[in-house]
């Protein structure tokens, strides 16, 4: 079983990704408040997610050249500086075009943070990368718990949502000061070839947890430099679909809690933290599960938990029961992205920087289309009925996960296919 060793580099990347989580999970509850403030419809307010999508595409395009020119570590710090500048603008500006533009800037640099952290952890931890990425996203969710609670408190206190943007800038500054104080430097380049040959992809095709676990040839060693294999593109589409699930929940859950479960505006904003609480717990537990179980079956199990949680949330007519459903939903959602991105980067092999950049595009597609579609439907039938789009996304993700498992088995050498198929 791979062993995850957490050093200063690991903890710093966890904190850096947490800064993105604070914004991402805090911005969802802000959207309904912005809609009320700007006097727009749900579909128009959903254009903020289009801003995130545009930023994701830009960030995906910028990361690989920035990593080549500056190094992976400096590219992450550049991303955090851009996030700080963007949230400052969002806290100061009021017109709709300005807030959408600010969100696009934040997402551009935020995607550079996500890409950089994912690549650094994958290279740094080898076969334990799925566990490290899951824990990093637990840190992301952990910080995301704080933001909706701060927003709920400031809204109920009559201060509005904008003070949370100042908190974000302060937290980024603290992380930078901690890195300087403890002299933690992130690697600028990929590890040497011998280190790069460590087999993070091997866990993808493991067929047993026993001491006689069967594995296939290391996909990282067999990958063609610069070329992304078919399994990567299936994982890419999967990330787009699961990203659609997450962003729709982030942006519109507060509306459903207000209109269907009877919560106040401040209470609904704070209650969104229930999803993130579930994700935090799920990712803490998922880090250990990812060391023991192959990613694809674990991903299918997580999607099943998400579907059960959604059913409870959507059908609940009272607040506490709906919030319970959100916690269960978060437990399932916890593993969607970490497992999918770990598979994608593992099968990419030498093209990891390129793969991380393209992964941002998948999030851009999910963030750009799904929330606007849900907002358009919500304007016609209400947010509660519109949320029935989400089970469709979950079902599609399950089918893609099954297809991904088949693609990974087919990519194995001939002599290894029989035991893999038998395990399935």
Gist of the model:
The protein has 424 residues and is mainly alpha-helical. The protein has 19 helices and no strands. The chain has helices at residues 8-38, 42-45, 47-70, 72-92, 96-125, 129-156, 163-181, 193-196, 219-222, 230-259, 265-271, 273-292, 295-315, 319-333, 336-348, 352-381, 383-386, 389-410, 414-423.
How would you describe what is shown here?
The protein is mostly helical and 424 residues long. The chain has a single domain (8-190, 200-423), classed as Growth Hormone, Chain: A (Up-down Bundle), CATH 1.20.1250.20. It is built from 19 helices and no strands. It has helices at 8-38, 42-45, 47-70, 72-92, 96-125, 129-156, 163-181, 193-196, 219-222, 230-259, 265-271, 273-292, 295-315, 319-333, 336-348, 352-381, 383-386, 389-410, 414-423. The longest helix is centred in the first third of the chain and has 31 residues, at 8-38. The chain is globular, with a radius of gyration of 20 Å. Residues 192-223 and 413-424 have low confidence and may be disordered.
């Amino acid at each position: 079983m791979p062993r995850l060793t957490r050093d200063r580099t690991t903890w710093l990347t966890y904190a850096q990704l947490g800064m993105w989580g604070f914004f991402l999970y805090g911005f969802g509850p802000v959207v309904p408040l912005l809609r009320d403030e700007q006097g727009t419809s749900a579909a128009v307010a959903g254009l903020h997610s289009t801003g995130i999508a545009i930023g994701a595409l830009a960030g995906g395009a910028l990361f690989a050249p920035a990593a080549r020119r500056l190094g992976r570590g400096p590219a992450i710090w550049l991303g955090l500086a851009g996030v700080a500048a963007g949230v400052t603008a969002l806290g100061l500006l009021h017109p709709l075009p300005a807030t959408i533009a600010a969100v696009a800037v934040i997402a551009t640099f935020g995607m550079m943070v996500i890409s950089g952290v994912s690549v650094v952890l994958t290279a740094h931890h080898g076969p334990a990368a799925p566990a490290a990425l899951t824990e990093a996203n637990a840190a992301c969710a952990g910080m995301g718990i704080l933001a909706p609670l701060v927003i709920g408190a400031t809204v109920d206190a009559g201060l509005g949502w904008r003070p949370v943007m100042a908190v974000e800038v302060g937290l980024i500054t603290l992380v930078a000061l901690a890195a300087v104080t403890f002299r933690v430097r992130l690697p600028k380049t990929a590890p040497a070839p011998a280190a790069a040959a460590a087999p993070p992809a091997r866990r993808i095709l493991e067929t047993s947890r026993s001491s006689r676990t069967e594995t296939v040839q290391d996909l990282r060693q067999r990958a063609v430099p610069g070329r992304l294999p078919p399994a990567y593109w299936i994982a890419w589409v999967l990330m787009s679909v699961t990203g659609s699930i997450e962003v729709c929940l982030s942006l519109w859950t507060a509306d459903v809690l207000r209109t269907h479960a009877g919560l106040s505006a401040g209470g609904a904003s704070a209650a969104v933290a229930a999803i993130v609480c579930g994700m935090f717990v799920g990712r803490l537990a998922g880090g250990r599960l990812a060391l023991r179980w192959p990613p694809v079956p674990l991903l299918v199990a997580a999607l099943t938990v998400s579907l059960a949680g959604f059913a409870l949330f959507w059908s609940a007519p009272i607040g506490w029961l709906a919030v319970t459903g959100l916690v269960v939903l978060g437990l399932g959602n916890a593993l969607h992205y970490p497992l999918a991105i770990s598979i994608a980067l593992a099968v990419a092999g030498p093209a990891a920087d390129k793969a991380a950049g393209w992964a941002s595009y998948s999030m851009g597609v999910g963030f750009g289309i799904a929330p606007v579609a849900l907002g358009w439907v919500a304007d016609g039938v209400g947010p509660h009925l519109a949320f029935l789009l989400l089970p469709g996304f979950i079902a599609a993700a399950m089918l893609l996960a099954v297809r991904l498992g088949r693609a990974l088995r087919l990519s194995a050498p001939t002599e290894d296919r029989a035991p893999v198929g038998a395990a399935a």
